């Protein structure tokens, strides 16, 4: 049975570095046997449908290998199905509908975001910025946007996310990927 997924690429097309043109990314995904491939923005968001029974992790590894083969550098990726993305949006503990997209972010992780990782963070020191943990995701509320956020820097420190791939999307992108992966 066919299933629709989003591929979230980390750290591409930033300041002219690690360039992965979206047309070529679509081609890479098609070469892997996926269909209905679409991209969103230039920051590494792709949606595809596949009949593959591979796990999210297997789909991720295949995509990372194919990107490395095509472009000559490895890109960390996360592949998540539409049901997962919808569940993440639905479980958001912040009033997403009342906020601007730049004020709310989802930081997706390759594995569980255990509370212990974040226990040393003095949450009060960063107010009004806040975060909450979900299923392999951290919800980050930053009233002034991620670019001005001090808490955003703290929750993404290598010592905090050690051993995990982490990639952030603003709430507008979260909602758009849910729409693009919705299956009737």
Automatic annotation (TrEMBL):
A Pfam family cross-referenced in the UniProt record is DUF1697
Q: Which InterPro entries match?
A: DUF1697
What name has this protein been given in UniProt?
Answer: DUF1697 domain-containing protein
């Amino acid at each position: 049975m066919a299933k629709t997924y989003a591929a979230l690429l980390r750290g591409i097309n930033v300041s002219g570095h690690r360039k992965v043109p979206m047309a070529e990314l679509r081609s890479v995904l098609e070469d892997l046997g996926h269909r209905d491939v679409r991209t969103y923005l230039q920051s590494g968001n792709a949606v595809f449908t596949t009949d593959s029974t591979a796990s999210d992790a297997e789909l991720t590894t295949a995509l990372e290998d194919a990107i490395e083969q095509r472009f000559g550098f490895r890109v960390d990726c996360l592949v998540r199905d539409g049901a997962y993305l919808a569940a993440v949006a639905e479980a958001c503990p912040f009033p997403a509908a009342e906020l601007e997209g730049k004020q709310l972010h989802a930081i997706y992780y390759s594995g569980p975001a255990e509370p212990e990782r974040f226990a040393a963070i003095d949450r009060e020191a960063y107010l009004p910025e806040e975060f909450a943990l979900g299923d392999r995701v951290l919800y980050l509320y930053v009233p002034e946007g991620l670019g001005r956020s001090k808490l955003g820097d703290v929750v993404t420190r290598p010592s905090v996310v050690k051993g995990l791939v982490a990639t952030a999307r603003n709430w507008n992108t979260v909602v758009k990927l849910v729409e693009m992966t919705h299956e009737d």
